[in-house]
Automatic annotation (TrEMBL):
Pfam families: FCD, GntR
InterPro entries: GntR_C, TF_FadR/GntR_C, Tscrpt_reg_HTH_GntR, WH-like_DNA-bd_sf, WH_DNA-bd_sf
Matching Gene3D superfamilies: GntR ligand-binding domain-like, Winged helix-like DNA-binding domain superfamily/Winged helix DNA-binding domain
Domain of life: Bacteria
UniProt KW keywords: DNA-binding, Transcription, Transcription regulation
PROSITE patterns assigned to the protein according to its UniProt record, in alphabetical order: HTH_GNTR
Keyword Ubl conjugation set for record: no
Full protein name: GntR family transcriptional regulator
Domain HTH gntR-type: 1-68
Length: 231
């Protein structure tokens, strides 16, 4: 692996995990001291991350980690819903026996993952996060649409970043009522009781019911008030 790839992986990991917070400046001196890479691999990595909407180049200020807000999270969820809905339909129409087995196994793993709650240990959240994403990926990979799968992977990364900031307490909402409502919504929608009916409808090939449940699951933020940026 080249130094550019190593720098890119390290920066992306820390942005998605919340180790690098929203709006944090990414100066050459700071990044070199933190990661040990020279300017060329760091510059190339930052350029790639800008293309993924994880960092922003601000005129006369250099690169910064992209900000995060409830409004952005809601927009990301809408984009996710559009892509995931089509992939779910394709999976229900085209998924074979192996697809069904992958879905059942992913559901079992998710049922044994830690329960989502604010301030939970980072290791427990990682277990939940991996199991939750694996379930949704299994549910939607029966149609084998490579391009939609790539787009969905990028969207999942942004969803994970926003939710990790909230759940692990690395960023707070300025409106306490919205903060509490968002956390309650995240806890409710992450439970296995939300995922089991979705799995059952998909495996029963009940396309309309599965899509309805997916919309309920992903669209749970729409009833919340607009929040201020995460800081």
């Amino acid at each position: 692996m080249s130094k550019t790839d190593q720098a890119y992986d390290a920066l992306k990991r820390d942005i998605l995990s919340g180790a690098l917070l929203p709006d944090e400046p990414l100066t050459v001196a700071t990044l070199t001291a933190r990661y040990g890479f020279g300017w060329t691999p760091l510059r190339d990595s930052l350029s790639r991350l800008e293309g993924e909407n994880l960092v922003t180049l601000v005129r006369n200020r250099g690169y910064r980690v992209n900000g995060a807000s409830f409004a952005e999270l809601r927009d990301i969820q809408h984009a996710r819903l559009a892509i995931e809905t089509q992939m779910l339909r394709d999976s229900i129409r085209l998924g074979d026996d192996d697809w069904q087995k992958r879905v059942l196994l992913a559901h079992r793993t998710l049922s044994r993952a830690p329960v989502l709650k604010q301030g939970m240990p980072a290791a427990d959240y990682e277990r939940f996060e991996v199991a939750h994403q694996a379930f949704h990926l299994a549910l939607t990979d029966g149609g084998n649409n490579e391009w939609l799968g790539r787009f969905l992977g990028q969207i999942y990364a942004q969803v994970r970043r926003h939710q990790r900031l909230i759940v692990l307490g690395r960023a707070a909402l300025s409106d306490p009522r919205t903060d509490a409502a968002l956390l309650a919504t995240l806890r409710s929608s992450s439970g296995i009781e939300h995922h089991t009916p979705l799995m059952d409808a998909a495996l029963d090939r009940d396309e309309n019911r599965a899509v309805e449940l997916l919309h309920r699951h992903i669209g749970t933020f729409d009833g919340l008030d607009q929040a201020q940026p995460l800081r």
